[in-house]
Amino acid sequence: MTEQDKVKRCAELVEKSKAVVREVFKQFALDELAITWTGGKDSTTTLWIIRQVCQEDKIKLPKVMTIDEFDSFEEIHDFINKYTKEWNLDIEWCRNDDVIKAAGGKLNATVKVKDLNERNQAELKRISFEEEAFPFEAESYVGNHLMKTVMFSEFIERHGIKGIFQGLRRDEQPARVQDEYFEHKEAAHLIPGHTRIKPILHFTERDIWDNIMVNKIPYCILYKQGYRSLGAKTTSAIAVADVPAWEQDLEHTTERAGRRQDKEQMMDRLRKLGYM
Amino acid sequence: MKNVILLTIDALRKDVLGCYGNKSGLTPFIDSLQNKCIRFTKGQTSGPYTQASFPAILTSSYYLEYGKPKGLSPQRTLISEPLKQAGVVTAAFHSNPYICGFLGWDRGWDVFYDSMEDEVEPRIPYIRGNIIKTKANNWLSSHTKDREYKPFFLWLHYMDIHEPYMPEKKYVDMVGSSITISQDEMYDMFQNVLLKRDVSDPGKVALLKKLYDIHVREVDTYVQEFFDTLEKLGILKDSVIIITNDHGDEFNEHGGLSHDDKMYSELIDMPLLIYDPNQDKGEICDTLVSNVDIPPTIVHLFGLKPVEGFEGHSLLPIGGYPEKGCFGEAIDQHSQRGGDIERDVYFYRERDLKVIYRANLDTWEMYDLKEDPKELNNIINTSPEAEELKSKLKPRVRRWLKE
Fold first, then answer.
1. DSSP assignment of B143-181
2. How far is A174 from chain B (nearest CA, A)?
């Protein structure tokens, strides 16, 4: 693709996303909306696009939420802090301090369920975790639930959020090919009903990088070191050392190869089916 | 013929289907299809649980072909791969973690939904058949919107019969069952009887079987709803539909529950129906066939040349199928070491004779399925055919070590 074609294609992709965002502003009140931001390339692109729409249409940018899963990269924190200031964001950091306290602030420490507060205990019951203790790892099944899912649910509950922007892409996992821009989640035990909005669903991983380069969108320095997908610090792996993510063979290798969450999800289902 | 659809039903015993002789009326819809079906009466799965069986169903190869299984070996060819290459559109919708994308089963599919990203009920950790149907319906409606749509291969897998056996009230009522226990009590049965493989109380085992049967009735309605969808979209007349299981389920026929590493009929007997909209009087095929034959059959239905490496043979045309024995294998999945390849078990069947070999114990069993369908009378020491069958199975035992 020539540089000119690339610029044209990126403009089209962004326009499509902007149309989704504008539809959201028509359907939801501003204070019912929020944006999830992990500091990763996809949610940063999403945030950048929403910000563009807000500037063009003179709308206040909805509040931003970011989850600190404790086992996190300093480089991502620095990146988030820098652009929170530069972009003047109304940001809320969400961290499950109760779990961290029960783990004595140490990764891999054993967390006793009885040391957790009522809400966290209820959440464990909800996912049918019936053991007395678990190791504190952010991306283990239990850890992921308490550190991320619970923080997410609490945030939308606390602010009465009805629509929440997420940086999910269709090509990220084959399971997402049928995803839609708007996904309504019915209320369930401990989870308020809400709509997940995915403005960049149609971007591929390659599109994300092309667009970041064409529009000079900032990105976390870890991508330059060879990370392709950023999750918790101890479970994210460099894909190809010293080869920036955008120079890697994105089309023929998997983006999530370094992540453990998919495995945990599978193991948990198997356990509940009575295997293991 | 344009499309091929494969419906696999997890843990479906052959003997619960009316078309295979069951009198309880659990599968009225599937039974009603018989005049448009070829019904295979001697199908055998090649393994007693999902991981052991699906390599055959989708890759026409055996479970332990490459030694200890860790995800889907790149050496296997998934049926989706040659089909996609030939221009057939391929789509899969299921919810069984053992065949999820993470383990490599998403190769070659245009659409692959394994539900792993979706929330499921904590006690019933899979997506129900009605949701699978909705997802398939959405995809089919958009794919076949155009009159000139590309032919497709669609695979749906229903998990609903699989434990924990907690049927909803409407299905309990549907079979006219007198069961009144609550969902909590059902879950308690799952945890304290089924998971513990506790067969000491025949009343509890019978209750588990009743709950299981209700799920069979439930899945029959999902199959019916799916056929209705195809009819509404006007594509039923253009689709061959293969209906089968991946394995059966045990209710103390041989001292256990669920589906462990055993090779008896309650786990290995396979219902197999090929629905052909152009048939008008049903056909019955009494030849011994295996689920490794499913992928070559699909390839044949699309008019493609046989795929190199597929171990089975096309079941169609029926006259062209070779007479052969059926083979299967498994390992102990519940041992402390998890998936212990050194605790392996094999079976080989020819006509009505079956031998079973446990390699770690070096023990043989043999049954005459015609005389002794419940497989209770081991004739390994008295049958004049024992040595011949043993000699045919032996080369398969731990063959990955020999290469």
1. HTSSTTPPPEEEEEEE-TTSTT----HHHHHHTT-----
2. 6
